Every structure is written in structure tokens, then in C-alpha cells.
């Protein structure tokens, strides 16, 4: 709306020509100036400047929505991607929610990527089998995506479907894998994603993992006040989920943090050193990327290992 041309807003021709002569072309150009500065720049009476600003504001302002209309829109376009894990789907009221940012966090080797591969299969499954019958964009930042492993998961989870109907090649062809090598590459790929979502009927977006995009130095700064290194990417992912009404799933790693900061999950084990000093340094594991990232996530699923053979999934 802010890029709307002033020449198309129905202002008096004489005033519209003055705006053009002063290189004030869009609504943003005009509304960024104080009224008195605009009056001086256009060399018109204050009343005329205020009238022009009111007209530009009226046209450039997006239409309002009531809380009721927002609720009805959300109900009409809502939904979930079932995970086929009954307990998890019950807790999430049906599965991974549409239009929201869902984070998977846990230590290495706990099964985050495997869970993402299964979600990818579920999104490409025909609707008659409980899937979304769509495409998947899988952003693989750590080169962990394995087509062979994904097919194995499909054959073990849905043996009758995969073996009898030969869906494996068809479903694999619906998964678009991207491998950005840096945060700037990832940012560039996001700019092209809105169009891809519409053109390819994408029903799921996965980023595995977000923490891998941030260097050690940037990650340490993520826990401190100030601009988060992934702030713009996070904002874009949330708007993408809301705009397209699809589930967006991201994985996150864990990292060490000093004992004076609270921890909540069993994977956050204390590790004491052998220092004999009275001021011992103790650390534990917490989700990476800092508090700003945590507050922006809609649903956090925490993978915890209790023993070699037992693990749990907690919903935050």
C-alpha cells in the first residue's frame, strides 16, 4: 500500500503535478514527511497539504478487520498436518498447525531430522491416506537430507501404500530440497519463496536447521539484548506461514549456558568440572538462538532422551 502511486490517487491535477515535480512519487514518500515540511516543499497552504495527506492516508491505509472477522477467517483456513502419533496429535488438537511456526529442538541424534522426513512424506501423501497431497520445500542447511532414508521411513510407516501402489518415486518428486550455504543465501532464497508456494502448491515448509545458519559469534549475541541475527528471516517465515496458511517447521539445536540461567528440560543436564576452586563453573544445555527466537515460535516440541532406549517429546 505504501508504494501506491500518488498520481493514481485522484488528487487535483495541479497538486498531483507539484508532487511529481518535487519527486514525491509514492504514498510512502509523502507520509514520511511532517506536514510543515511537506507544505514548504510543495509551496502550498497548510490546509491543502493536510487535505492531500488525509486523501493519501485514506487510500494507502489497508482495510481494517474486526476481531470477529479475523477469527472467522482463521477458522475457515485453519487445519493441521497429522503426525500419525496419536498422543502428539491429541495434544496439538490434530497435528502440526497451519499458519504457525513450529520448532523442533533437542540434542544431536535425537531424531529431529527423521521427524522432518516423516512430515515431508505425510504432506505429499494423497488426501485419501490422510496426507495433504501437496509439495514440500525442504531447506537443508546441514546436508542431512537423505532420500534413501525417507523412502525407508515411508516403507516402514506405510508398507501397503508404498509397496502396492508404487508411490515412492511420485512422492519423492514432490519434495523440493534447497541447500543454502550461508545466512545470506538463505535470506535470498526466502525472497523467492512466496511465488514458489503458489506456483507449486506447497503444503509444508521445513528448515533443518536454523541454528546452523548462525555462526558461533552471532549465536552468542542472540542471547543478548539487541538485534537478533535471524530477526528478518524469522519475521519473514512467520508472515509466510500466515500468508500461505501452511505449517512451517524449523529445527533448532541445543547449546551450553551458564548455571545462573534457568533450565526446564531433562536434556539440560548439569556438567560439573573438576575445578577445586570455590566458584565452580557449571553448565547445562538449553535451546539455541536465544530468548528473542523462543518468544517468536508458536509451538516448541522438545525432544528429550532419558536413556539409550527411551526418549520423550514435550510440547512448550
UniProtKB/TrEMBL annotation:
InterPro entries, per the entry: AAA+_ATPase, DNA_recomb/repair_RecA-like, HHH_XRCC3_RAD51B, P-loop_NTPase, Rad51_C, RAD51B, RecA_ATP-bd
Domain of life according to the entry: Eukaryota
PROSITE patterns: RECA_2
GO molecular function: ATP binding; ATP-dependent DNA damage sensor activity; double-stranded DNA binding; four-way junction DNA binding; single-stranded DNA binding
Alphabetical keyword list: ATP-binding, DNA damage, DNA recombination, DNA repair, DNA-binding, Nucleotide-binding, Nucleus
Family to which the UniProt record says this protein belongs: Belongs to the RecA family. RAD51 subfamily.
Cross-referenced PANTHER family: DNA REPAIR PROTEIN RAD51 HOMOLOG 2
CC annotations in GO: Rad51B-Rad51C-Rad51D-XRCC2 complex; replication fork
Name under which the protein is recorded: DNA repair protein RAD 2
GO biological process: double-strand break repair via homologous recombination
Record's subcellular location: Nucleus
UniProt domain RecA family profile: residue ranges: 77-254
SUPFAM superfamilies: P-loop containing nucleoside triphosphate hydrolases (SSF52540)
Amino acid at each position: 500500500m505504501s508504494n501506491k502511486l500518488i498520481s493514481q490517487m485522484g488528487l487535483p491535477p495541479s497538486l498531483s503535478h507539484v508532487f511529481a515535480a518535487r519527486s514525491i512519487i509514492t504514498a510512502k514518500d509523502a507520509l514520511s514527511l511532517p506536514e510543515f515540511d511537506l507544505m514548504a516543499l510543495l509551496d502550498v497552504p497548510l490546509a491543502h497539504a493536510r487535505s492531500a495527506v488525509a486523501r493519501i492516508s485514506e487510500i494507502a491505509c489497508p482495510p481494517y478487520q474486526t476481531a470477529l472477522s479475523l477469527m472467522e477467517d482463521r477458522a475457515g483456513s485453519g487445519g493441521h498436518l497429522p503426525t500419525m502419533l496419536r498422543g502428539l496429535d491429541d495434544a496439538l488438537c490434530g497435528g502440526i498447525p497451519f499458519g504457525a511456526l513450529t520448532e523442533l529442538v533437542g540434542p544431536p541424534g535425537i531424531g529431529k531430522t527423521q521427524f522432518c522426513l516423516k512430515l515431508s512424506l505425510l504432506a505429499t501423501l494423497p488426501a485419501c491416506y490422510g496426507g495433504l497431497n501437496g509439495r514440500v520445500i525442504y531447506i537443508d542447511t546441514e546436508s542431512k537430507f537423505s532420500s534413501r532414508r525417507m523412502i525407508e521411513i515411508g516403507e516402514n510407516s506405510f508398507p501397503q501404500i508404498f509397496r502396492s501402489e508404487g508411490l515412492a518415486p511420485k512422492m519423492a518428486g514432490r519434495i523440493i530440497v534447497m541447500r543454502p550455504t550461508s545466512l545470506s543465501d538463505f535470506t535470498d532464497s526466502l525472497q523467492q519463496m512466496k511465488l514458489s508456494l503458489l506456483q507449486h502448491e506447497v503444503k509444508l515448509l521445513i528448515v533443518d536447521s536454523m541454528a546452523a545458519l548462525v555462526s558461533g559469534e552471532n549465536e552468542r549475541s542472540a542471547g543478548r539484548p539487541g538485534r537478533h541475527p535471524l530477526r528478518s528471516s524469522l519475521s519473514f517465515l512467520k508472515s509466510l506461514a500466515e500468508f500461505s496458511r501452511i505449517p512451517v517447521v524449523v529445527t533448532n539445536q541445543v547449546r551450553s549456558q551458564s548455571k545462573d540461567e534457568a533450565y526446564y528440560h531433562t536434556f539440560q543436564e548439569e556438567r560439573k568440572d573438576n575445578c577445586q576452586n570455590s566458584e565452580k563453573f557449571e553448565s547445562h544445555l538449553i535451546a539455541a538462538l536465544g530468548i528473542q527466537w523462543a518468544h517468536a515460535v508458536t509451538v516448541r516440541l522438545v525432544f528429550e532422551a532419558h536413556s539409550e532406549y527411551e526418549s520423550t517429546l514435550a510440547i512448550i
